[in-house]
Amino acid sequence: SISSDLSIYDPHLIVIKEGAMVGMKCIMVPHYIVKGKLVLNEIVLGRNSLLGAGSEVAPGTVIGDDVIGEARVTFFPKAFVPSG
User: Fold this and answer.
1) How far apart are CA 78 and CA 22, in angstroms?
2) Closest CA to 20 of 6, 33, 32, 30
């Protein structure tokens, strides 16, 4: 389930696994610029996980299976949240 007002950039670099849910007004951006160079890193949202409303997900973030993210959480680049 994905809210209709999600802001998603570079969708080919975003993996949303079976049963995952993305709340309203979330932002998922798998790219950033460092010293003038474009960096692309995949974002993964695990099975049966929830990304709460208004959350922001940066490049390289991996959220494991069965994770419940509160509303308005910011995941910094290369953040890792283990399953459960």
Assistant:
1) 19
2) 6
The kind and range of the H/E element at 46 are: none
How far does Cα 15 stand from its chain's mean position?
Answer: 8
- Cut 0.90: pTM above it: yes
- How far apart CA 32 and CA 5 sit, in angstroms, is 22
Distance CA(50)–CA(41), nearest Å, equals 20
CA distances from residue 18 to 4, 35, 60, 73, 81 in whole angstroms, order as listed:
18, 36, 19, 21, 17
Let me know how many helices (H) and strands (E) the chain has, helices first.
Answer: 0, 12
Q: How confident is the model over 23-35, as pLDDT tens digits?
A: 999 999 999 998 9
Residue 29's closest CA among 43, 17, 48? 43
